Amino acid sequence: MSLRATALLALGLWAPASAAGTIELLETTHADGRYTVSFEVVLDAKRDKVWQIMTDYEHLPRVSKIIVESQVLKQQDANRHRVGVTLEACVLIFCKTVKRMVDIEARPQTEILVTEVPGQSDFREGSEHWRVAAEGAKTRLHYTAELVPDFFIPPLIGPVVVKYFLRREIRLTALEVEALANHE
Hints:
Elements: H1 3-7, E1 22-31, E2 34-43, H2 47-54, E3 67-77, E4 80-91, E5 94-107, E6 111-116, E7 123-135, E8 138-149, H3 158-183
Helix pairs in contact: 2-3
């Protein structure tokens, strides 16, 4: 849910359902230091299980290898949490540890809104919106995000490399969520 935030802000996905765990559409944009991302993927897993995994904020590292730590720092109620997340990712030869502090509002079981906590993150600003929809025994995830990193991204990495990285990470994360949902 986090390094994706660095580049996922520039992605867009839309297409008819295809193979489970595959990205149907992915677009990324970058302008003035702002990444925008949108994607859509269909998982071969029931929505209730997918929702349970996506809202288990203490265990986010199990859904993505780039998430090395996640911790609920504050819980306002059953659906609103402040979460700290540490990410480690490498693109080409560049590696970065990224810290995020986000406020998460879950709207059971259809939406998850994530907002960067200003001054407490390695992002100057950011917002993510997840829509989770049942499609029979499958689940469609739709994601949009807009992020402004507060750290240097080497010019050589640029949107093309970031898009490749994100496509790979989205696919691996989707497959991991799908596998967890089918084995719990």
